[in-house]
Structures are given as structure tokens and as C-alpha cells.
Task: structure prediction
Amino acid sequence: MGILFKGGTVINADGKHRVDVLVEGETIAQIGADLSPDGHQVIDCAGKLVMPGGIDVHTHLDLPFGGTYSNDDFSTGHRAAAFGGTTSHIDFVIQPKGGSLHDGLATWRKKAEKAQIDYAFHMAITDLRPEVLEEIPSMVDEGITSLKLFMAYKNVFQIDDTTLFRAMKVAAKHGMIVMVHAENGDVEAELTPALLAAGKTDPIYHSHSRPPEIEGEATNRAVMMSGLTGCSLYVVHMTCQSAVEALSRGRALGYPVMGETCIQYFFLTAEEHLGAPGFEGAKFVCSPPIRTKHDQEVLWHAINRGPLSIVSTDHCDFWYEGGVGPYEEWAANHPNGDWHEYEAQDPTYRRPGKERGKGNFAKIPNGLPAIEDRMMVLWHAGVNGGRMTAERFVEVSCTNPAKVFGMYPRKGAIVVGADADIAVWDPDKEHTISAKTHHMVCDYNLFEGMTVRGVPVQVFVRGKQVVDGDQWLGHNGYGKFIPRKPFAPII
Ligand code: URP
Ligand code: ZN
Ligand code: ZN
Result:
């Protein structure tokens, strides 16, 4: 017996069609008009849209960062993602300093044992010793075809230009893609202490320590290195005009460069959100920072007309009011313990979060909750708001992610032979976003109070239903690692 999605409108990046979709086992077996329901479980899709499950190519689940760990892990983050229509994601493995890429991979494989949806990994290089340079090609055999290098976070993840250049040369040879967090971390490391010394310690000053110029400069540097090495480049979380212009110049020169933005950058501004009264602005601290209304318009234009190809989230959530309970004492007695273990002792305990940076914006853990809301908010503001077509919505949130990162056509489209990752979308249903009802482990929501129209009502991962309205049907361990292919296209 298969599952027949009957009577809906299938939306792919290249068009909309009133067709039925038959799933057998984990894959899509047949697509056509009026397929026979005989012997199948029928999902009535009348009045609904049938779309590929979303792919979020930029997430940080269970990431040690900012003196704590991001809240959502490969269980809670997956559930939240699927409630928002996202059925796969790519998380960043972090190479431990002094360790190998495989050491990092082993740690992330362990984290992912409880996966509920499908996932893949990018490999973030933090320490490119000669033996690590030699290790890079072996990542392709592991199904990891993208490397990440941070041009920011000095003394934490930041690499220098030599490292970026060397990594790009090796990556180009093996058809891998290099991703960069493009901000000039050396300049930021000069600006931050000066601001703090001048008594400028509130969350808003985080954005003063990371002005758009340092993003534009670093983006341009990486783009030029792509031109020099021929290495495919993907600039993550682009926020502003100077960065978008640097990417456009590279593309006009024929360099193999691409970029994404993240959902939050279309909606939040430094002035309103980071500058909120008291310590509220900490909720919105991420790097690069949220910018201006003008930059938002630049991003909407760039995602529709180029040069941007993908909308992701950079999901990396922290409590606003964390650090509850004797966690320091616990951590001292459990050097290898994880925060979930600590919190499991008593649900009122919380790992440290944004409150770490009260009186010092530089100590606020950088990152935001968004994995659940990306598609609903983009649909509402983008498609309902007349800013993008439904096809472009699928392209930037499902199809391009699969193509750019070597998963297409297994993922990212409703086509015969693809994994049956399907979101049945009710275009008329309204939902008011709130931390009170979301599934992310976080005590606030970026889009609190926003009413969206158009939400996923049934979600399937490889033919298994995981979401039915408000009900969760998935389970730990169902999610599979997606090995990815090298030499993916430039979109
Ligand atoms: O603020 C952010 N973006 N946190 C997550 C780490 C990163 O830079 O992507
Ligand atoms: Zn980043
Ligand atoms: Zn990130």
C-alpha cells in the first residue's frame, strides 16, 4: 500500500500542476492526473498545496558557543523544523582545535544519533595544520562536500587569509564548495574593546562593533579568492548592500560565487530590535547583525532577481533568561557532561543564555531561533505579500538548497524517484507565531505576534508522516544522514 496525495496543487520551482502524487516506501513513485486510489492510504489535498519539504542549509544544533551551548539539539530542533515544513537541514561540524576533521565528525555523528528528520554536515575548519589540509579530500568520501571558514570570531573560530586560500585550492580540486562567514574579525576585535571602554555596553553596540563595511570587505576578499582559485564559494548569512554588491561584482566577472540570506534579515532592524529598551535587544544579537530597512529592501530584491540563491536560518538559539540553577557547580563536577543532562535533572534549570551579556554586549551568545518559522514567514511576507512567486519560494527554500549542496534530485523537488519529503500546505490557514506555542526550546520568538496565512498541516519525511496538525508523529533515530555529491552546480 502506498500513500496517495490526492487533489492538491503540486508546486515545484519550475511550475504548479494539479496532479496527484503516489508515494511507495520512502520515495515518490508516480505523479499524474487522477491517479487511482485503489489499495492506497489517501491524503485528501483538495484546496491544499503539495510542496517539497524545506531544506535549511545553515543550522547550529547543540553548538558549544558563547560560553554555553545552543538550546535545540538533533531531537528538539528537528521537531521544530518539521512543524514549520522543513524536512532536512545541514548542520556545521566544528573541527576541535588541535584535533582532526574526523574528530569533529565523530562528535557531530554522536549528537545526530537522535535525529528525527534527515540531515547532512558541513565541515568547519578552525585549525588548518598540514595534516588537516591533507585530510580535506577524505570528507568527500564521508559525504561532506562543503567546508566552512569563519573570517570572524577572533581567537575562537577565525581563520586567516592563508588558511582560506589554501583550503580553497584543495576544495576546488575536489569539487567541494567553500562557505564563509564574511566579517573582518580583526577589525571587530579592535572596535569592541573601544566601545566597551567608552561605556557602550548595551546590546545595540554589538551592531556598532560589526558595521556593514566589515561584512562588505570580507565578502569582497572571499569573492576575489574564489576568482583566483576557481573554488566555488557560498557566502552565508548575507545582510547588507555592500556584501550583496561584492557578490554581484564577482558573479559579473564569472566567478563561481553564491550567497544566502537568513529569514530574520528581512524583518528585524538594529534600530527597533537591538535598540529595544533595557536588555531586550539581546534577543536579537547575532552576527552579522540585523541592519536597516534599506538593507531589507536590498535583500528582497537580491533574493528575487539575484545574486542571492537561498534563504536559510542560521538557527542557533539561546535562552533570553538562562543560567538558572547551580550550573557552574554541576559543570565543574561533570567535565564531559552535556547541558541536556543538567537540565534533565529539573525542568526549571537552564543552561546559560543571553543574560551572560548583561553589562557587556560582547558576552551575549550570538544566535537566534528561526528553524521553525522560516518557511511560514517567507511564504506570508514573500508570496502573500506579492514579493515572490510560490515557485520562487520553493526554489529558494527547497530546490536551490538541494542543488547547491549536492542533494538534488533526491531532495528539493516533487519528482519521481525523489525522497518523499512532502509538506502539505494549507494556503488559507492562519497561525499566530508565539513562544508560547512554538516547538523550539527558547523562551522568546523573533516574530512574536505575527499572524501568517499559509502553514504546513501535514509533513512527511521519506514517506513517514511526522506532523499531523498539532500532533508529532516522529521519533528519535528516524532521521538519516544524507551523503552529498561534489561538483554541484553554481546557481
Ligand atoms: O550569530 C550567529 N550567527 N551565530 C551562529 C554562528 C554563526 O556565526 O553562524
Ligand atoms: Zn556565521
Ligand atoms: Zn551560522
Summary: The longest strand covers residues 422-432.
